[in-house]
# Entry
Amino acid sequence: MTMVVPIGPQHPALKEPEYFRFEVKGEEIVDVDIYFGYAHRGIEETLARRNYKHNIYLSERICGICNICHSTCYCQAVERVAGIEPPERAKYIRSLILELERIHSHMLWLAVAAHEIGFDTLFMLAMRDREHVMDMREIISGGRVHSATNTIGGVRRDVTPEQIPKLMEKLDKLEESVKYYINLFQTDRTIKSRCANVGVLTKEDAIKLCAVGPVARASGVKTDIRVEDPYAAYPNLSFEVITEDDGDVLAKGMVRLREMLESIKMSRQILRELPSGPLRVPVDLKIPPNEAVQRVEAPRGELLYYIRSNGTEMPERVRVRTPTYASAPSLKPMFVGGTVAEIPIVLWSLDVCFACNDRVTLVDAKTGKVSVVTMEELRRWRK
Amino acid sequence: MVKILPKVLANLLRKPFTVKYPYEKVEPADGYRGKPSITKEKCIRCWQCIRACPDRAISVDKETKTPVIWLGRCTFCGECAEACPTKAIVMTKNFEFLDQYEK
# Structure
């Protein structure tokens, strides 16, 4: 006898509207259906109706947490379509804000993960230290969350020599606290008992289900767009791709924490080696017919933009594939076999971002069953 | 128990990390993109700001023939301040206006 436990679309455990239908046998999860699409906003269609320059700010608003990844990916795709190359200094500043975003996103992950396992002291500490990154972002871009720094053909704002000592000081503080968290994750009894051997994704499953980003790296798959398809200043920076072998929640946390250390190291290198030169090149926005694909390693994994131009100031088609969408199928092997109490932390171990995700409606069919979409349902979705 | 005592004492004696915000102001960093302000005398009516605005938040005031910004739509990107040839529009550090209705 199995019972169905629906979680969502509105549920206090989830911060965003998403529907999970858990089939449970006592405490054990037997099956899970994932229904996406509650936060659909029609952004891809809107992107095709505005001009290239106005689209930068719309693409930033696909996701608030990874707004710089979205705008960088969009700008790089347009630059590729138009066949222009941004200046070296712009590339370095882009990499700097991208790395700061990675730190802040992982810090937020740590805070909410601590909250999900009932460790609210760590939540407070992580949020306190995240403030250093937010301050750095404010100094560099002029806004705490939305940077508005990227533009087509370069960046809009410069990092001045007076800002660098301030940034370095904050990076030192951050490094100290991240090292403390790594030590905490390795030794603390509460974290170990809640996270170890929970929500395991094996290496075979990770490859089979095409997991991306930290989720895949925690299962031992060495994948990173910064290495595989280098963009911005990453070919000139030295960093290592962090992997863990266990694939459980603890490993996913360790990957993120160690990635933060790498990001801090990279930010220091960028601030030391910042080349001089212009910030942006002028662009003619009437781009002749062409198409391009650009990939960026967002904090959650691979982000993909496809742009097709048609000779006007507006793109003909923009396709966005966000990391949560790519990683969503791997939720199933992580849930099945676990208990109901594990649901929040396992879900959060993927670092789900549904606001990014919901530009498509996806229905996972139950094993052995094919779900048929009726005309009635299609009509309902269209509205 | 004895091991945590120094930490407890240090935490008791240190200052809190938060500030009492409405009573204690925190100055944003230089170059913060706050409320945009328009100097009407400097405006040369080239309407570059209207072209640059990604949110169509800027319109023309019928009486004074100068641009006005609808703050409910503005996303504070600073494109208008960048586009303005006479620096009539600048981004100020003011962020404490969102509770006031303004059109």
User: Anything to note?
Assistant: The first helix of chain A runs from residue 43 to 47. Residues 359-375 of chain A have pLDDT under 50 and may be disordered. The beta strands of chain A are 3-7, 19-25, 28-35, 150-151, 154-155, 290-298, 301-309, 315-321.
